[in-house]
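so the lab meeting is tmrw and i was supposed to have these ready like two days ago... anyway. pasting both below. for each one the top line is the aa sequence and the line under it is the structure tokens. i havent really looked at them closely yet so no promises
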Amino acid sequence: DLTALDALEALHTMVADWHGLVNVLDRKVERVFDPQERAELLRRAASVLEELLGDPAAAIRLYERAAQEDDRDPIAL
């Protein structure tokens, strides 16, 4: 249920549980059908991985997935 995942996303953000936030964003990607929305969720998770968790390699993988979801996405490219 996306409503529950939205609440979990807010909670993980509030308590700065970045690993939990990435997990929730990934779970949301699995439940969303719109490619642009999926790309946005993947970019957000990639940003957390890169900027807050210091894992640029994992971030790159998610940015690449975002580009595959929405090939018009200039940010993911």
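ok protien two:
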Amino acid sequence: GLIKGMRASGDFFDELDALIKRRCALAIKRTKANGRKTLRGVDV
């Protein structure tokens, strides 16, 4: 895995979750702005 051999604290995963939520919200906004209902990789 990406963090193989490393340890991660709970706040790392909290921040990762928040980052994913922000990126998804932006992707949804972009998708809607382009008149689509399907999220694409390019939206991220």
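from a quick look at the 2nd one: The longest helix spans residues 10-33. Residues 7 and 13 are 11 Å apart (CA to CA). will dig more after coffe
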